[in-house]
Amino acid sequence: MSTVYEQLGGEAAINAAVDIFYRKVLADHYVNRFFEGVDMEKQAAKQKGFLTMVTGGPNNYTGKDMREGHKHLVKMGLNDSHFDHIICHLRSTLAELGVAQDLIDTVISVAESTRDDVLDR
Amino acid sequence: MPTINFEGKDFFCAEDETVLECMTRHGVMIPSSCQSGACQTCMIRALEGKPTAEAQQGLKDTLKAQNYFLACVCRPDGDMTIGLSTVSPKYRVSLLEKEALNESVIRLRLQEPDGFSYKAGQFINLMRPSDELTRSYSLASMPGDGFLELQVKRVPEGQMSNWLFDDLQIGDEVEFFGPAGDCFYIPGSPEQPLLLVGTGTGLAPLYGILRDVLAEGHTGPIHLFHASLAAAGLYLVDELRSLAAGHEQLHYIPCVLHGDAPEGGRQGNITDLPAEVLGSLSGYRVFLCGDPPIVNALRQKCFLAGASMQAIHADPFVFTPAPDA
Ligand SMILES: Cc1cc2nc3c(=O)[nH]c(=O)nc-3n(C[C@H](O)[C@H](O)[C@H](O)COP(=O)(O)OP(=O)(O)OC[C@H]3O[C@@H](n4cnc5c(N)ncnc54)[C@H](O)[C@@H]3O)c2cc1C
Ligand code: HEM
User: Fold this and answer.
1) In the 3-class helix/strand/coil scheme, how is chain A assigned residue by residue?
2) Could you report the predicted ipTM of this complex, rounded to two decimals?
3) Which CATH number is A4-118 given?
4) pLDDT tier for residue B325 given thresholds of 50, 70 and 90
5) Between B189 and B178, where is the model more confident?
6) A11, A27, A49: residue with CB nearest B39
7) Domain spanning B3-83 has what CATH number?
8) Which residues of A touch B310 (CB under 8 A)?
9) What mean pLDDT value characterizes chain B?
């Protein structure tokens, strides 16, 4: 079975999704402080890593990477409600791109499966 | 078996091995994360040899043009020399012209050395021969001008800028390395709308880019915002007005934070003005140069106003704060 990543249209589709997704995140005052890095471009590339991963595209991230990668954010207060916001932006990004509901559900369940790792529990 | 040269040493790349795997196997640690071409952490530059097309997927055009690539997905098909940046030769040139553009900005025209090649909008690292004090200055000229133009602002207590203002004479020599920087125009999509925003001498690279864009026959609308604290800080106003008069696609908008804006200009905060004047920036190619906090704020505003991250080119004029600041 092909991955959602392939069904979406691969790398080109993810590039389009990064712009939409990252714009939503930056405009959301509840979570944007976590993304206020010095370099927006590097951040955007990381969001591409995020979207590639949750859509099942080529990636080598592990649960441990998710734990390590977000630990500094947990120290800054990252919790379930922030996680919910991100899930919400992910869902509406995919919906905006016209992705079918069953594919969206698949992506969201992958993202959900990382909750404990991301929140370091 | 392709050979990868890095900092003067040769490393043999096994069949089907990526550049990242090869370097890691030899104990050279290149920072990396996703290992699949997405996160761009492992971006590096090919100084010789061509990176594969796959290894440049998703990178900005300006980075591709300079042979940047992602080490984690590059399976080289030939020998390569990789590194973070080109080691440029040092050039020694003399000052041809010096002219005040306003009370605090001068224009310097330097000899263009033989064999020097650059893209309008890039910068050079200028060196004072007596003690090798080095600072970056953007090129306001474009290839073919026959000289290299800098526009320099006097910074209070500034070592280099005050020396350039007060001591450097026509005929004196300076040294430089370069060019560097990825804020430049790549021909293509001539009908795409362009937004150029500069504060202070952030106009220097934009002046080069603008003339390059017009010479390339760009037909889409071009909006140039030049901002200063007050009208006295603007410069090249007449030149830009007459350039705009000769090209109907060009719109020049001088902006001031305080006091009255010149005719056709705007008063207000430059980080808000472009989106206020133009509305949605979706589909725009954007160039932002000058004061770092303003450039970074503009980058975010332009992105939120609809410009794609891939289409925003920025050149913050970063400087080292004084030790006691
Ligand atoms: C990529 C790039 C391109 C650049 N292009 C140009 C250009 O085209 N034209 C131009 O005029 N400059 C440009 N600059 C800035 C330039 O490199 C120097 O930083 C500037 O000329 C000051 O150098 P200085 O030796 O005179 O001051 P320094 O002796 O380095 O600094 C003196 C004091 O002033 C402070 N300071 C330095 N710069 C500024 C500033 N801009 N605003 C406020 N305080 C400051 C320092 O923190 C220090 O306290 C560019 C910088 C970069 C990184
Ligand atoms: C929904 C589940 C999530 C997944 C699967 C996920 C995945 C990822 C991935 C793959 C990266 C890139 C790591 C790298 O390449 O270095 C990343 C980075 C990042 N994530 Fe998440 N993430 C999730 C939730 C969140 C949440 C809820 C926040 C904050 C509100 C967040 C904030 C960040 C930040 C700020 C970075 C960049 C960190 C840095 O600067 O290195 N993430 N994430």
Assistant:
1) CCCHHHHHCHHHHHHHHHHHHHHHHHHCCCCHHHHCCCCHHHHHHHHHHHHHHHCCCCCCCCHHHHHHHHHHHHHCCCCHHHHHHHHHHHHHHHHHCCCCHHHHHHHHHHHHCCHHHHCCC
2) 0.74
3) 1.10.490.10
4) very low
5) B189
6) A49
7) 3.10.20.30
8) 15, 19
9) 90
User: Which amino acid is residue B59, in one-letter code?
Assistant: L
Residue of A nearest to B292 (CA): A38
Q: Which residues line the pocket of ligand 2, CB cutoff 6 A?
A: A 31, 34-35, 37, 46, 49-50, 53-54, 61, 66, 69-70, 73, 78, 82-83, 86-87, 111, 114, 118; B 33-34, 39
CATH class of the B90-180 domain in this structure: mainly beta
B318 in ligand 1 pocket by Cβ < 6 Å? yes
Domain ranges across chain A: 4-118
Q: How confident is the model at residue B85 (pLDDT cuts 50, 70, 90)?
A: low
- For the segment B104-152, what is each residue's pLDDT rounded down to a tens digit? 999 999 999 998 999 999 999 899 999 888 888 999 999 999 999 999 9
Report residue B228's pLDDT band, with 50, 70 and 90 as the boundaries: very high
Three-state secondary structure call for residue B114: coil
- Element containing residue B194 per DSSP (H, E): strand B194-199
Q: Which helix (H) or strand (E) holds B9?
A: strand B9-12
**B34 to A53: CB separation less than 8 angstroms, yes or no:** yes
Give the model confidence (pLDDT) of B30-53 as tens digits: 877 777 777 777 888 998 899 999
**Measured from the CB, is residue B292 less than 6 Å from ligand 1?**
no
Start and end residues for every CATH 3.10.20.30 domain found in chain B: 3-83
Q: How far is CA B221 from the centre of its chain?
A: 21
Give yes or no for a cis peptide into B179 (omega within 30° of 0).
Answer: yes
Radius of gyration of chain A (CA): 14
Which of the listed residues B118, B153, B155, B159 should we mutate to test ligand 1's pocket, taking the one with most ligand atoms within 8 A of CB? B155
